[in-house]
């Protein structure tokens, strides 16, 4: 069911500084930052060729990233994202196997449906699934 690694997301306390780090220090290809109000984040992707890094910065009052940064003030790995053919179909299969979903599928940073899986059911990792199409 799962396919390729789509991205690894890193919560950052300062997005400009994070962009400068990956662009100027690491010499990476950083794409333009984008606000995703529905997810409570501003994201900037670093295109690595075989996969991406997603730099995540809180947006709005109820951002899930704000809580993470309270616990991890210097930032850190927040989630990773695996590709599936169909997010809704994959969610149903996983739910039948006892994996809890966090909310309903939403449109993610690339305009494709995404869903998050409960970390307690995924070896302690927050896992995002993103549709291929
Ligand atoms: Co993500």
Can you tag this structure with a few keywords?
alpha+beta, 9 strands, binds cobalt (II) ion, 2,3-Dihydroxybiphenyl 1,2-Dioxygenase, domain 1, 133 residues, 22% helix, globular, 9-stranded mixed sheet
Describe the structure.
By secondary structure, this protein is an alpha+beta fold. It has a single domain (2-131), classed as 2,3-Dihydroxybiphenyl 1,2-Dioxygenase, domain 1 (Roll). Helices cover 22% and strands 39% of the residues. The protein has three helices and nine strands, in the order βαββββαβαβββ. The chain has helices at residues 15-25, 64-71, 87-96, and strands at residues 5-11, 29-30, 34-36, 41-47, 52-58, 76-84, 101-107, 113-117, 127-131. Strands 1, 2, 3, 4, 5, 6, 7, 8 and 9 form a nine-stranded mixed beta sheet that branches. β4 (41-47) and β5 form a beta hairpin. The site of cobalt (II) ion has 6 residues, from β1 and β6.
């Amino acid at each position: 069911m799962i396919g390729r690694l789509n991205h690894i997301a890193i919560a950052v306390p300062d997005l400009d500084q994070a962009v400068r780090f990956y662009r100027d220090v690491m010499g990476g290809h950083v794409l333009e930052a984008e606000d995703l109000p529905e997810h409570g984040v501003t994201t900037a992707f670093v295109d690595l060729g075989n996969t991406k890094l997603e730099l995540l910065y809180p947006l709005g009052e109820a951002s899930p990233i704000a809580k993470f940064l309270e616990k991890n003030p210097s930032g850190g790995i927040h989630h990773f994202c695996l590709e599936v053919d169909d997010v809704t179909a994959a969610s149903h299969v996983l739910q039948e196997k006892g994996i809890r979903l966090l909310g309903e599928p939403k449109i993610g940073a690339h305009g494709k449906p995404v869903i998050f899986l409960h970390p307690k059911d995924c070896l302690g990792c927050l896992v995002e699934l993103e549709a291929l199409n």
